[in-house]
Amino acid sequence: MATGTLRAFVSSFSVIFLFKLNVFFCQQFSISFQQPSDCGVDSYFDISSLSCVKCGPNQISSKSGLACECQTGFRVLVSNGVSITCQQCPDANQRVTQDGYGCIRCSGSVGENGKCQCPKGSVLVERDRNGNPLNESRCEACNATEPAFSAPDTTGNRCVRCDDSFINSSQSCVCGISNVQAGGMCFPSNGLPTSVVPNVIFSQLANSVPSAWFSNFMYSSAAACLLFSNRTACQSLGNMCVMNMHSFSTINNDACGLYNTVYRATAAQGSTQDVSYWRANLPWLYYGDQLGLASRILQNEPLPVGFSFKGTQKNTNIELWAAVYSVRGEFLRWESIGGGNLQLCPDTPTRQQSAFTFGTAYKQSCVLSVSELLNGYPEPVFYDVFLVIQKPQEGKRLLAVPLLNINQQFNGQFTNEGSNMDNWLLTRRMMLVDTLSGRQNSLSSSPGVIRVASNIKIGFQLVPNTQKGQVYPPLMTVTYSDIPVTDPITQTVKVSFSLEYTMDQEEARVKTDIALGVLGGVAVVHSLLKTASWKRRIASPLIDLQTIMKFLVFYAGDLANVFFIITVGTGLYWLIFFKAQLFVSVLLPLPAQEERFVVYVGCAFALKTVQFLHKLFVQLSVDIFFIDWERPRGKASKHVEGSGEAKSQASPVSIWRTYFVANEWNEIQTIRKINPTFQVIAVLFFLEVVGFSNLALRDPSSDLRRSPEAYTSPYSLILRYGVASAMWLCIGLIQMIFFTVIHERFVEDKIRQFVDLCSISNISVLLLSHRCFGYYIHGRSVHGHADTNMDEMNTNLKREAENLCGQRGLLPNSDTQTFQISITNRLRAQYDRIIEPINRRSGPSRLVDASANPCEQSTKAYHTMNRFLGSVIDHAHREMDYIVKDKLLFERLIGMEFIEPLDKSIFYNDDSHSFTDVLFYGNEAVLLIFDTLFFCVVDLGSQNFILAAVLTYLQQMVFRLIRNGMGRRNLASKTLVDKRFLI
């Protein structure tokens, strides 16, 4: 017990010691969080220890909070660069000098900081010309008259020559009463309003903010520009108009109003660079002051150079340059547009430069923090953007890129928001982020509102019918977002930068409408023929609601094919002509213009679904019966109970052959000419592994492989549909050709094998897909019996191979075993009369005979039907006889019989085995188109080929299970074969 207690104590002590050691280990690497604002008045923030340190005696924290300074009335005695020692001035009448190291008597007044100050127009002197400190400060008045024209500088330490505007206006450094002083300058009376509106309109917030920047510099910039032709002032005034969104109004004393006043007043100075809208000394801000000029500017004359995607004359480089100005109107530099100067979102230079490859639909978007914008853009920078035009053997020319400012107002209306070009007012000069104009109290205060270029789009429009890649001048569209600053750390703004390329799609739209109209008319005629054929096949002359619904179903299928042909053709057209063109002659539709195409695809899928479900319903309700031609070979004696006598009767015929044929039919119900699993895997392999999906990108490149570092443009829905549908159809058609030409010929042909099986089994198959129309497979054995042993079976097959017996056809000396049949109403009525007791069992309970044995009813009906149909085939019923003939070519083409079976049924020779129309096998076209549309619709909705392939495969499996399960049930009920034997 003592040992156990000691061990427990040692273990507990060790755990506690380790815990304490771990805590101590963590604590020595952690510090308390402090910042300069936490230090107070008597402490400063030590940037080395990142903590607050108390100042020395007679010291207070400086304005920055990062050092200490002497209190008022105390001078610096010792300073070693790290710390200071403060001493009070010995004489109560002395004040601390401006540098803080001495004490001096003041000849003038004392300022709020406890130091000497001089009246306006004088400078403070505390040392002589040799630098020796004076006992008493002096105030030296600056000579404001000729010839000195001096005034104190901004620090008040020395006299300097006053601004020329004062000298020119009043011949002194004092602005006279008749003059106007603004922005540190003096202006004589002029045509400008002396009372300006320094407000910045933030239209999205329905608010206008008085701007400190506008208050300080707007009038002075306008006056200096007008009176002195000061180019920097003119640029500054133009920048203020840009910050106010180029907005036009009847007010002439806001930023743009002053700019337009100066613009009109300087008309005599002429224009710059032969551009009528570019006034001398002024920045170029507008393309006229009236609406309706945009079309003349944008679509009057194409660019003198063309673009080419391939070949030796390949030209896909878009070169843009910008003249960059500061907010004060200073010219900063010429800057090549590319990389991140117009793109606020961070990205690699390679991806950002991809924006300027002609034909590449570029879009970059991200979410930025307001605090990052405040720190990164303390002042706005302004850009005048130009397109570089480089002709062979000629110098560079710069084409001005017009700007469409969505936030611009014209007399209170946002005319640039709509798509009507006649209402646009094009402008020049743009900015990215404005954190300056929203500062209200002072320039050093935080802005209440900031403005961000949240959406920048550069658009090129292709010249109609061009074959040389000519485009109209580009248009830059800018949308600004007004953001009230409440919590910069948590506030965000979404920004984007994009390039788009357009062409007139009206011609393509008209051609599509014409094709849709023509093919739709053909579809109506074809549907009417199919409806007429259906009416004849059900032997109903009346046009009732069922007929109308049937026509609509047929028309849905035909119209689905029309939409499918048009959409696939459209997708392949754009894929081939856009990706393979040398000189640019076509450009892809914009995403908004693809909506109509997507609607067509949706219509094709919906209508094809109706057709597919109708086909499935017809196949699941087809009437089928197996005619057994086997006859008893002799008689067998059967003992009769009670009488003690043996009664002789015909030997029973085995039912196993019928069961075997029924099972084989059940198996071939869902066989197809393509393998769904291989189809899905092959399509995914070519799209995702080989890289055919890259052909659907909105760029001119036709490369299947893309570098991971390169920019990946968004997908075009039309190209994506074209690639996906073409890939699915091509692989499906290749499978069908391989299945038909090679597999069925050299490996296995299940349809012909089934027909052979019927002949070997001595079983014929009657299929009625309509009330009076269907198919007949003649399987009557030429040997008379099929229920035999192996030796006799082999002998029969050998005799047949050596042509020692008759042929298998229905007619003598004929091999035709499959037929399309049109039966008379009399024959159909007798068929229904025989099968009626069985059908009544599945009807209402009040119609069912409770005393009847279902098994006996089924057996009796089976034998009755077998004898009846066998006798009909053997021409034993003159009133229900039939003839055999060939179908006319036109009858086969339109799928309709011209002769109505009134007195005799008609058996049409059918070597093409068209009885597969009631199987998946004979409807491969419908299934293939349905699968293609299903795959493409899922992909268009999800933009994911893998998901589309998986869902398409699952869809195929689900419908296959439905077709198998319900087809098996229909087979059992119609052939009177017990479904327990269908395995």
The total beta strand count reads 39
Strand content: 15-25%
Helix/strand structural class: alpha+beta
Q: What is the overall shape?
A: elongated
Q: Can you summarize the main beta sheet?
A: 6 strands, mixed
Poorly predicted regions are: 15-26
Q: State mean pLDDT (0 to 100 scale).
A: 87
What's the oligomerization state?
Answer: single chain
Number of helical regions: 21
User: Roughly how much helix do the residues carry, as a percent range?
Assistant: 25-40%
* Cα gyration radius (Å): 48 Å
Q: Give the termini distance in whole angstroms.
A: 76 Å
How does this model look, in words?
- The chain is of the alpha+beta class.
- Helix content is 37%, strand content 20%.
- It is built from 21 helices and 39 strands.
- Strands 23, 26, 28, 29, 30 and 31 form a six-stranded mixed sheet that branches.
- Helix 11 packs antiparallel against helix 20 (924-942).
- The protein is elongated and about 160 Å long.
- 35% of the residues are buried.
Using brief descriptors, characterize the structure shown.
983 residues; alpha+beta; six-stranded mixed sheet; 39 strands; 37% helix; elongated
Topology, please?
Blueprint: H1 2-27, E1 43-46, E2 51-54, E3 59-61, E4 68-70, E5 74-79, E6 84-88, E7 94-96, E8 103-105, E9 109-110, E10 116-117, E11 122-127, E12 133-141, E13 150-152, E14 159-161, H2 164-170, E15 180-182, E16 185-187, E17 199-202, E18 207-210, H3 212-228, H4 231-243, H5 255-265, E19 271-272, E20 275-279, H6 294-298, E21 320-325, E22 331-337, H7 349-353, E23 362-369, H8 370-376, E24 382-390, E25 396-400, E26 403-405, E27 430-431, E28 433-434, E29 449-461, E30 475-484, E31 492-502, H9 506-537, H10 545-579, H11 595-620, E32 623-628, E33 635-640, E34 645-650, H12 656-668, H13 676-690, H14 717-747, H15 750-761, E35 763-768, E36 773-777, H16 790-801, E37 818-822, H17 825-841, H18 854-873, E38 882-885, H19 889-894, E39 905-909, H20 924-942, H21 945-975
Helix pairs in contact: 3-4, 3-5, 4-5, 9-10, 10-11, 10-14, 11-20, 12-15, 13-14, 13-21, 14-20, 17-18, 20-21
